């Protein structure tokens, strides 16, 4: 326990750590996600005794994109999600005197699950501040009321390589789960008191279901991120409403093979490369990401030994290449193709994070 000597300022500190994620992995649109080794972390200091004066949480950000984050707890995504969890448990306001120090390594709007990580961090923050001890399945329900595709949030919460689906809801549950996001996460006015607004819509129970797949230890992920943001909402907006039977079968066949192929040691590059093909989201997103068609066709396990497969990370624009070696030359080739389209990039070599999200008491 971390406590200062004076009893009036005695406090406990906790660290919440949430990994970034790469969703889809080719054919698994809105199904698969991998937790990777960059994270959003929060150090949360909570006074042991509530101060006499009521104060909102103080938020401090460091790290990537920290200049672009609202610091009002009524505007910030983390704290709005936490307040949703608290209000859903009849706790109408934040405890007073809380300090939240966020450190972010996940670039915003690049397809590495920054919003999914923020939503999971917010749910864990609400659970901590309300002393709720919610089980993982309930934490996921709250996250899914905010981020409505399960791939990023499930992988961020659970860690590793995960497949997930949403339970078919009863008509009554369906009406709760399809409430507009603005009602789940209202923009609280600056002077919002404990009685502000109506009761939040509670999530139906057991919305998300998942299974953790195996992952061959020698497989690493090269993430090449263009220096521009692509909002997930915009990249979902270009997708069609329906697909041909041929394209659905194309993806289902590959997905079934891929989930086992990535667990096998040593990995089979030709099998994985083919199994990472996709006809559901990548073809439609090519107009938003210059260089994507060339990247997906130029690099192969034959041209670049060590490469296993290549895909758009989440909704993009980051490219995810799975590989066992020759990481620099694979990244350099992707970087050159982007450069030829006038796009600058940053790249990093990431490991799979098997731990998922953690909450620990700290000093
Ligand atoms: N740590 C964070 N704190 C607050 N807001 C965040 C955080 N991370 C992401 N966001 C919000 O989520 C947006 C990005 O979400 P999205 O378009 O889904 O892209 P991504 O692929 O990175 O998840 C950011 O512009 C920001 O508004
Ligand atoms: N399945 C979603 C995943 C979005 O991931 P993000 O990291 O880009 O937010 C999609 O492809 O739209």
Describe this protein's structure.
It is built from 12 helices and 11 strands. It has 2 domains: 7-209 and 355-362, 2-Layer Sandwich (Ribosomal Protein S5, domain 2), CATH 3.30.230; 215-350, GHMP kinase, C-terminal domain (Alpha-Beta Plaits, 2-Layer Sandwich). It is of the alpha+beta class. The longest helix is centred in the last third of the chain and has 17 residues, at 245-261. It starts with 10 loop residues before the first strand and ends with a strand. Helix 2 crosses helix 3 (136-146) and helix 8 (245-261) packs antiparallel against helix 9. Helix 1 (77-87) links the parallel strand 3 and strand 4 (99-104). The strands form 2 sheets. Strands 1, 2, 3, 4, 5, 6 and 11 form a 7-stranded mixed sheet that branches. The chain has a 4-stranded antiparallel sheet with strand order 8-9-7-10. It has helices at 77-87, 114-129, 136-146, 150-158, 171-177, 181-184, 232-237, 245-261, 269-275, 282-285, 292-298, 327-340; strands at residues 11-23, 32-47, 58-63, 99-104, 161-166, 208-213, 220-226, 307-312, 319-323, 345-350, 358-362. InterPro entries: GHMP_kinase_C_dom, GHMP_kinase_C_sf, GHMP_kinase_N_dom, GHMP_knse_ATP-bd_CS, Homoserine_kinase, Ribosomal_Su5_D2-typ_SF, Ribsml_uS5_D2-typ_fold_subgr.
Short description:
The protein folds into two domains: 7-209 and 355-362, Ribosomal Protein S5, domain 2 (2-Layer Sandwich); 215-350, Alpha-Beta Plaits (2-Layer Sandwich), CATH 3.30.70.
